[in-house]
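TL;DR need structure tokens for one chain.
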Amino acid sequence: MSEGGQPPPARLYSLVGVMILLWALNFIVAKIALREFPPLLAGSLRFVLAAAVVVPAYLWNRRTRIGPKHDFRARLRLLMLGCGGVGLNQMFFILGINSTSVAHASLLLTLTPVWVLTMSAIAGHEQFTLRKLGGLAIAASGVGLLQAAPGKAASAASPLGDLFILLSSITFAVFIVAGKSATQRFGSLTVNTYAFTGSSLVISSLVAWRYSAFAYAAVSATAWMSVVYMAIFPSLVCYLIFYYALAHMPATRISYFSYLQPLVATALAAPLLGEPLTASLAGGGLLIVCGVFLAERG
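>> reply
TL;DR here they are.
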């Protein structure tokens, strides 16, 4: 960090670029892990490993702890918020990426701001404008083009997989909207700690019982490393970079970079996974990104 407390722009933009790359790689890595792990088991292992990383950080940073002054209901709300917003979000993601293509998944997750806007408008915190409604319509047409495109089977995409990804996007939007006050009150580290720990205790315990006879020893080192990557980098490292960048640059500027994520993920999936690039994919993706951009800035 520079002497004045503001890091050089080159460092900030480099970190944000690394964040986008790590998030984009998560789609590829998840596909690799799912070659050997059942989807639910891969998701539950991610919770356990993420909790193992985030809990020590939470305990070390005393300022983020929930003290005795906070009642039982506050803790219970954080656990429910975490299991519902993060637990279901990640389980829907892993089920979706198992049944659809990286390109479809990365593009459909770009719709998260649209769900946030819609929920905020319903709650009375936002107002729909013609520009926002137009953006929503354009994004919806992009989703329709993705679903209507021929040759989806060849691109490893399926309507069921896309539906799971949409549910992942919606549950995370619920987490953002419902967890806004909790994040402001307790901090992002506390909220994420309760989210991953609660999901680990509730969801992973049920999944572990279901796969108690799974042959863990037969899993390759590559698959294990993929699950470790999913637990640490997109779940912890990227959020640390995000909040660091957010403290030194406008949120709108950071959000511009998020539109690169589906492009990077799709570009990586072509050579690494052999997923094809089609005109319908490009057209649908362009409509989704443009629609979300207009809706966010309407």
